[in-house]
Amino acid sequence: MTFNIYYSKLKHFDEKAQQFMTTDKSFIKGDEAKQQANNLGWLLMYVNMNEITEDNIEEILFRMRFADKVHGSSFIKRGDEEISLSELKKSLVEHIGLTTNYGPESTRHKFIVNVAKNLASDVAYKLTQDLEGILNK
After folding, report:
1. Are 61 and 84 in contact (CB under 8 A)?
2. How far apart (Å, rounded) are the C-alpha atoms in residues 51 and 99?
3. Phi, psi of 129 (to 5 degrees)
4. Per-domain residue ranges for the chain?
5. Tens digits of per-residue pLDDT, 19-46?
6. What are the φ and ψ backbone dihedral angles of 6, each rounded to 5 degrees?
7. CA 81, CA 102: separation in Å to the nearest integer?
């Protein structure tokens, strides 16, 4: 199944014209707005959620920061720099209504367990590779 991101419920997306708009309702030239929406769509998949609502923004931020902490680097960056929490929150608020076909959302507990399982799998794989390297010397 392909991963799809849907813009139709975004306030700044004109579904008829299939274009993003500025606050004065003029169309945005280029793909910058679409890229920003897509980045947030991929963020939703990263945090096992499928839409941005007014009520789940803090949960999205928590999950992102939790996973970033576990993985040791930020998922969303501008160049090599991490985007500030206030900037990211502002961007999420601007994209309320963005949805994906990610699948069933997980609870916070299930999300944390899944991140821990992935980390354990990564550690086990790396350990196996390191031990094979030692044994083959």
Report:
1. no
2. 4
3. -60, -45
4. 5-105, 106-137
5. 777 655 555 554 778 888 889 999 999 9
6. -115, 130
7. 27
